[in-house]
Amino acid sequence: MSDSPADLLITGCTVLVHEEKERIAFREDAAIVVRDRVIASVTTAAAAEDMAALERIDARGQVALPGLVNCHTHAPMAALRGLAEDLPTEEWFNDVVWPVESNLTEKDVALGARLACAEMIRGGVTCFADHYFHMDVVAGVVTECGMRAHLGEAYFSSQGPQGRERSLEFALGHRGAADGRITTALAPHAPYTVTDADLTATAELARAHGLPVHLHAAENRAQTDTSLARHGITPVEVLDRTGLLDTDLLIAHGTGIIERDLPLLERTGGRTAVATAPRGYLKFAWPDTTPVRSLRAVGIPVGLATDGAASNNSLDVWESMALTALIQKSTEGDPRWLTSRQALHHATLQSARAVGLGESVGSLAPGRRADIILVDLTGPHTQPVHDLAATLVHSARSADVRTTIVDGRVLMRDRELLTLDVPAVVRELDQRLAALADRSHGRRIQEYDT
Ligand SMILES: [Zn+2]
Fold first, then answer.
1. Which end of the chain is more exposed for a tag (fewer CB within 10 A), N or C?
2. How many Å lie between the centroid of ligand 1 and the Cα of residue 283?
3. Distance, CA 241 to ligand 1 centroid (Å)?
4. 308 C-alpha to ligand 1 centroid (Å)
5. pLDDT above 60 for 1
6. What angle do CA 177, 168, 187 make, to 5 degrees?
7. What is the mean pLDDT of residues 252-269?
8. pTM (global) more than 0.90
9. Residue 215 C-alpha to ligand 1 middle, in angstroms?
10. Using CA of residue 232, residue 235, residue 238, residue 240, what is the dihedral sign?
């Protein structure tokens, strides 16, 4: 160990670690040493007592977890939170969201993304996979606020070949930006809005440039049924036919994945991952949820997500974790399925894998990037602790996150945001809401027809 002071020393906490076979375990009275933005060691509090450090956090009574990853969102849509309520999917898209998105300016995207990042940092999210327009603006917000992000410029075939070209240009131009905190993906919207020819071209570009792909597919059962009726194949079979299952692929939702899709997904050997955002499925009254158990049985990582705040109303990944555990028990009719430890595995390593960061984040271990959250369990709703995993998943809330650290930098300390000014963002956003919500122009950016 170096004699020079550590950059950051977190002492006295309990640390969530992954043991053999990735079993979730907890190390009590521990310390985390951070040097050069990386976890140098997870040691005992006693061993760290006399260690020199430039910055120290006394974390007694708190649990250190890997920062949460929001595996699928549309951060700027925080500006549309609450605008399209209590509607079926089709009306949500066609009557409100896609008309309103034709008003969207770069300024709206910047303000929405800032608000989203503030909310996510407050909720212990250290990394998010974003899929939206004006992604260079989102990249700028990520750079300024200190988060980690996996970004993709979304496109529809209705935009012509320029959409796909912009997506590629963004992915090549921004990968590795923000000191390596930004990774990028190609981001076709979905098989129902992007033609097979464009999906095939996207898969070729992904392979040629070593880029992953992030898209919506088999979002719900109706999309799968429509695909079967129109083309005779499921959305996952479309991904296979167009070569996308030969890329590093992140599928958002997948609640319409059916039995016959599973062998195709299994063949990807874990290169395909699925992001689940269960709150929106409940709100849209979709009949299914992501088939987590079947996907796990064929080796597919399932990461946690929130989708955008226009459908989910929050970017609370902690809530997605608790809801996933509950909904899985309910849909499988099995209280033994999706234990708290399994939920924590989804929230940590599986979510990191889903966004292509399985080797660098998702676990508090030497050599991993220092993306760490500290959770306060001293509140009455989290005491006493008989089973720490259950306390975390079913009793704790995102508001119990006291401190959020990304790449060794403290972004929130004792609930105070250090890199974003929420009142200033809200003031500016408020002045723009009327223009943003205006639908009198009668335009929409795309048609939902499935
Ligand atoms: Zn989405």
1. N
2. 14
3. 23
4. 6
5. no
6. 90
7. 98
8. yes
9. 8
10. negative
Same domain, yes or no: 113 and 125: yes
Q: Tell me, yes or no, whether 287 and 159 share the same domain.
A: yes
Measured CA to CA in angstroms, residue 419 lies from 115, 116, 150, 294, 404 at distances of 12, 13, 19, 41, 11
Alpha carbon distance 331, 197 (integer Å):
36
Query: What phi, psi does 428 have (nearest 5°)?
Result: -70, -40
For the stretch 312-331, pLDDT in tens is 999 999 999 999 999 999 99
Q: Are 136 and 414 in contact (CB under 8 A)?
A: no
Which amino acid is it at 339? T
Residues 128 and 187 both lie in one domain: yes
Backbone φ and ψ of 154, nearest 5°: -70, 150
pLDDT at residue 227 in the model: 98
Evaluate whether residue 450 is within a structural domain.
no
Domain membership of residue 315 (yes or no) is yes
Same domain, 26 and 171: no
- Of 373, 364, 367, the C-alpha closest to 19 is 364
pLDDT digits (tens, 9 = 90+) for 424-437: 999 999 999 999 99
* Number of domains making up the chain: 2
- Using CA atoms, how far residue 423 sits from 121, 426, 428, 429, in Å, is 15, 5, 9, 10
Residue 313 is assigned to a structural domain of this protein? yes
Q: How far is the CA of 446 from the centre of ligand 1 (A)?
A: 15
Q: How far is the CA of 72 from the centre of ligand 1 (A)?
A: 6
Of the candidates 354, 372, 404, which is a domain's last residue?
354
Compute the distance from residue 309 Cα to the ligand 1 centre, in Å.
10
CA of 62 relative to ligand 1 center, distance in Å = 33
Share of the chain above pLDDT 70, in %: 100
Find, among 245, 201, 193, the residue nearest to 219 by Cα. Answer: 193
Q: Say yes or no: 288 and 315 in one domain.
A: yes
